[in-house]
Specification:
A hairpin with a 3-residue loop joins β9 and β10. α1 packs antiparallel against α7, α8 packs across α9 and α10 packs across α11. Helices cover about 55% and strands about 15% of the residues. It has 3 domains: about 160 residues, Beta-Lactamase, CATH 3.30.450; about 110 residues, Orthogonal Bundle (Helix Hairpins), CATH 1.10.287; about 170 residues, 2-Layer Sandwich (Heat Shock Protein 90), CATH 3.30.565. It is α+β, with helices and mostly antiparallel strands.
Length: about 500
């Protein structure tokens, strides 16, 4: 894993670049330094050679060995000179061995340690050239324009190489320091712009593979890496959406399967229970008639039995309506009539204040009064149950109220309150009947499940009431929705189409 690390590879590339650049720079500087120092060494030797040649241009001096030895000894005092030899015109050495060789040089002693004492000048010069880097040069000795000999000087390149080594070491150290500083800056910059986003992207990919579909990588760079990060974020978001759709589809499939089974059971069980409940209801009616002078306790218990039978009948009706929604038997009815009929079958506690704000000026509706009355009865019963300690129950109706719903939605957004409304789309006019309570409201989590079968927050109930309301409303060509603010109450809205051609009917 370490070898495959992007960080390691990047560091290796930077190190290779720094090493190659350092070697190249050091080589170039070393070559230039060597050339410059060697030229300086040769120039120095040529100056000594020209000086000796000038003093030796007299033929008489060339024949005076003692004077020539003196000239050569003077030149050999310089540490860079290993030997200085004067040749005559025939190439014979005219200086003595002890004058020609620079025995003062400490580097000469190790070289001569292996040579016999009787070695000639040529042997000594050959040994020096063999073991020492020598820059040899010759300067002619002229008498007028006639050459009468030459001066040969062997210059040691030891100091040159030593200086070159020092220069190269200094350059290498300087380059390494600069390269290290530059490499550090480059690494930090690349780490911030490339390595960190790629590492974070790798971790995010691993998290995504482990099931964290909400993972997102923060954008902290530009260019191709930013494109890669954006592509990953889009992929993760798309995968999250697809996964959510798949889960929703799976839940919907399971729900439909449960509903199919429930529908089959509802029809058979409902019909089987309705007959005995009818017999019990008739029995209670008979007992009320024959026990007209019974005590209050007996009458109270008969009333309890009748109430529970009615509740059971309502549950059975919900089951049967859920299993199979009958085609509506429509007729012309006004919103006021529908509300009055629904309120007539509902029991409103004394602690609940009823506000009926439905006017008679609204156009009539073409609906099934029994089905839509059942819807309103269910909504009114739910509103009453939402206010066990009392409150206000408001029933209102208005024409084309969708604009009002949208204004309420915008107002709720300003207050940061949860609000859900139906999106109704009618070709013509419609009347919206609303049933509002002042209870505790509905939590955002439960708002999503209100119209799902078998969902209920009540201690008693099977969770089919609102589903039946929705089915019956849509069967009559309408839409149902809900708006709720936590702690302020809930409003159910039923939007029903206006009867065409009967706008002015009462």
């Amino acid at each position: 894993m370490l070898r495959q690390s992007i960080r390691l590879r990047f560091l290796s590339i930077i190190a290779c670049i720094l090493i190659v650049s350092t070697v190249m720079v050091s080589t170039i500087i070393g070559m230039n330094e060597q050339k410059m120092l060697k030229n300086s060494l040769i120039s120095k030797g040529q100056s000594f050679g020209a000086y000796i040649a000038k003093l030796s241009q007299d033929p008489l001096v060339m024949k005076d060995g003692i004077q020539l030895d003196s000239l050569v000894n003077e030149a050999n005092k310089d540490e860079d000179i290993m030997y200085t030899v004067i040749h005559d015109v025939k190439g014979n050495i005219v200086t003595s061995q002890y004058a020609s060789i620079n025995y003062r040089s400490r580097r000469l002693k190790p070289i001569l340690s292996g040579l016999p004492k009787e070695s000639e000048i040529q042997d000594i010069m050959a040994a020096v050239r063999n073991k020492e880097a020598i820059a040899e040069l010759s300067v002619p000795i002229l008498s007028g324009a006639v050459p009468i000999g030459k001066v040969t000087i062997g210059m040691s390149e030891h100091k040159v190489r030593h200086e070159i080594l020092k220069t190269i070491l200094f350059v290498v150290a300087l380059n390494l320091a600069m390269a290290l500083a530059l490499g550090t800056v480059l690494f930090i910059a690349s780490k911030r712009m490339i390595l960190d986003p790629v590492t974070e992207l790798a971790h995010a990919t691993a998290s995504l593979a482990e099931g964290d579909l909400g993972i997102q990588v923060k954008a902290r760079t530009t260019g191709e890496v930013q494109m890669l990060v954006d592509s990953f974020n889009r992929m993760a978001e798309e995968l999250r959406k697809r996964s959510g759709e798949l889960l929703d589809a799976q839940e919907e499939l399971v729900r439909k399967e449960k509903l199919a089974i429930l529908g089959q059971l509802s029809g058979s069980v409902g019909h089987e229970l309705r007959n005995p409940l009818g017999v019990m209801s008739n029995a209670v009616y008979f007992l009320r008639m024959v026990l007209g002078d019974a005590d209050e306790t007996t009458k109270e218990y008969l009333e309890i039995i009748k109430k529970e039978i009615d509740n059971s009948q309502r549950i059975i009706t919900d089951l049967l309506d859920f299993a199979r929604t009958r085609a509506p038997q429509t007729r012309i009815v006004t919103a006021g009539e529908l509300v009055e009929q629904s309120l007539g079958t509902c029991t409103i506690p004394e602690c609940v204040v009823l506000r009926n704000e439905v006017t008679e000026t609204l156009p009539p509706l073409r609906i099934d009064p029994l089905q839509m009355g059942q819807v309103l009865q269910n909504l009114i019963a739910n509103a009453v149950q939402a206010m066990p300690a009392g409150g206000a129950l408001t029933i209102a109706a208005r024409l084309n109220a969708e604009c009002g719903i949208r204004n309420a939605e915008l107002s709720a957004e300003k207050k940061h309150s949860p609000l859900r409304t139906p999106h109704s789309a009618f070709d013509g006019d419609f009347v919206e009947i609303s049933v509002a309570d002042s209870g505790e409201g509905i939590s955002p989590e439960n708002m999503k499940k209100l119209f799902q079968p078998l969902f209920t927050t009540k201690a008693r109930g099977i969770g089919l009431g609102l589903v039946v309301c929705k089915n019956l409303t849509e069967a009559n060509g309408g839409r149902i929705g809900v708006a709720s603010r936590s702690g302020e109450g809930t409003t159910f809205m039923v939007a029903l189409p206006v009867a065409t051609g009967n706008r002015n009917e009462s």
